[in-house]
Amino acid sequence: MPVRFTLFTTMVALGLLAVPTYAADCKQGDGSLAATYELRGVMEVGSAIRLHRDGRFEYMMTYGAADEVAEGCWKRAGETVVLTTSRMRNNHGGRKFKQLKLKLNSSGGLVRTFDATHKGTYARLR
Hints:
Layout: H1 7-13, E1 35-40, E2 45-51, E3 56-63, E4 66-77, E5 80-90, E6 99-104, E7 110-113, E8 119-124
Antiparallel strand pairs: 1-2, 1-8, 2-3, 3-4, 4-5, 5-6, 6-7, 7-8
């Protein structure tokens, strides 16, 4: 049976949900995309994104002992969803992203390219 990640329960379990969400500078997002999405197609990675109608997003990813959590504003630019962080934390000391660009696919998923050989899709949870 596969392990199901939920954005908030995973962040709480990891002790990462200690930062309030800010929306002061966010602009209304595309309401048709507002939802919670779970990453699929990348082995041993748990990740989720929640897009809010008011333009805020929350993100988490865990890979082994490496954890990331971020929040900020999102917008749709054609067939791309752009996440711009206002706050990001990780426990691995690695590079933090300022922007993450995800491509919309025909089934409403958000495609993330990690590198030349690793690509996954954030699928909308129902």
